[in-house]
Amino acid sequence: MFAYPEFNENGVKTLCEIGKLQPEMNMTIRIKRFKENETLTLKDESCETAFLLLKGEAEISWNCKTEKIKRANPFEKTPYCLHVPKNTDVTITAKEGTEILIEQTENERYFDPVFYTPDDILYQEFGKGQWDGTGYRICSTVFDYDNAPYSNMVLGEVFNQPGRWSSYPPHHHPQPEVYYYQFDKPQGFGACFIGDNVFKSTEGSACFITDGYDHQQVVAPGYEMCYVWMIRHIDGDPWYKTTRFYAKEHEWLAK
Known about the structure:
Blueprint: E1 2-3, E2 12-16, E3 28-33, E4 38-42, E5 47-62, E6 65-71, E7 81-84, E8 90-94, E9 99-106, E10 114-116, E11 122-126, E12 137-143, E13 153-160, E14 165-172, E15 177-183, E16 189-194, E17 197-202, E18 206-209, E19 215-219, E20 225-232, E21 245-246
Antiparallel strand pairs: 1-18, 2-3, 3-9, 4-8, 5-6, 5-7, 5-8, 5-9, 7-10, 11-12, 12-13, 13-20, 14-19, 14-21, 15-18, 15-20, 16-17, 16-19
């Protein structure tokens, strides 16, 4: 339900893998950290794939197209993301220290690849006028069922403001969800609640949420927390923004 994965000798950190690691997530999610001018080529025969730039600078190519992407860190709020169907060749050449999150799941549908720039990303503020501002957070959506109904995934980022809560009030949904945590300072920390369990969220950690578990987050004062949120639609039951079931005792907070 919570993990502190490390990068291996090839600069790859695996959060979950279809059929192998956290299989109930039904997704493969990895972070690739590049060496100087290192090139990664990927073509998956059964999975759609999203490439989200976390930080650094790279060139990304697909279908005879090439784009340059650059982002100092997630807190710049300048995400770039390439989303492609199965059987699509993607090549990335990056500078040292660049990190790209790769999210995959099985999808038989074909769709035209989509390259998202910062101008395409939906940013929304939540909780600003509630609970004396203690639940204020900024949520970005790269794609979900609204703008990518052909996809089996959801991808976005939450910017948890210092000392405040997010993913609140406590709620659950049947679709599996993964969070990947980053902080504006490496010593930053927070807490992740999954059901009755509480975990310390730190730089590069991850949580895995399954059906029926209420979840919510908080970050320590003085530190901003960003977590990439990734959901796998259930076949015939996609996740919507309204797919939230609040814990009975906390429902009054949502009114």
